[in-house]
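Weekly structure sync, notes
Attendees: PL (lead), two postdocs, one rotation student
Agenda item 3: pending single-chain targets
PL asked that the sequence for the first pending target be pasted directly into the notes so everyone works from the same version. It is reproduced below exactly as submitted, 228 residues in total.
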Amino acid sequence: MSYETLPENLARVREAIAQVQHAEGIRQVVRVVAVTKAHGPAAVEAAWRAGMADVGENRVQEAVAKQEGLRLPVRWHLIGHLQTNKAKLVPGRFAMVHSLDSARVAEAVSQAAQGAATRVPALLQVNVAGEGQKSGCAPAAAEGLVGVMSECAGLDLIGLMTMAPWTEDEEVQRRVFGALRQLRDRLATPTRPLLELSMGMSGDFRAAVAEGATLLRLGTVLFGERPT
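Predicted structure, written out during the meeting:
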């Protein structure tokens, strides 16, 4: 699969980010995480050549397979649901885990990190929209889980993550992303600022930027439709 249009696609995304930030009066840095799910190692290489140092994978196994065959200094992000039996593969392989959503999984990653004498930057995934098919804790459980994760010696809790419903209604998108930002503002403390907000994918990243996203998880808008 050819990724010749990737630099042009990325330029359009960055221009859209700049336009939204200008309109909303936002100046914070927004990082694009290039999601290479279902694409081969060539997509990671193309992302690196285009200037993207952050690469996201949904599945641990797929990420590990690509990491084994590549020696690029990219920052790998785990953005999909993590099972406890895969926690041991996280330390040393992922620069950030976006999708911790239970005390059990958080503690498993923390224990693995301590065994590797390191710490894992992590986000708590919150199911703001309350959709049954999506992972993430309920907003009402977020405060308790933030407390648990903050006490995990192998984790650095640095923010929150969510996904909006599959809709083109920007008002709905902004309502969900705005609710995550408000939740972060309520849970943040001077010693636990929770600076990162991972929200926004190819179909709704503009709404996410408008509501304060710091990390965008983009695949289709950069690479085109995923291979079947």
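Discussion points:
- Strands lie at 31-35, 54-57, 75-78, 96-100, 120-125, 155-161, 196-198, 215-218.
- The radius of gyration is 17 Å.
Action: rotation student to compare against the earlier draft before next sync.
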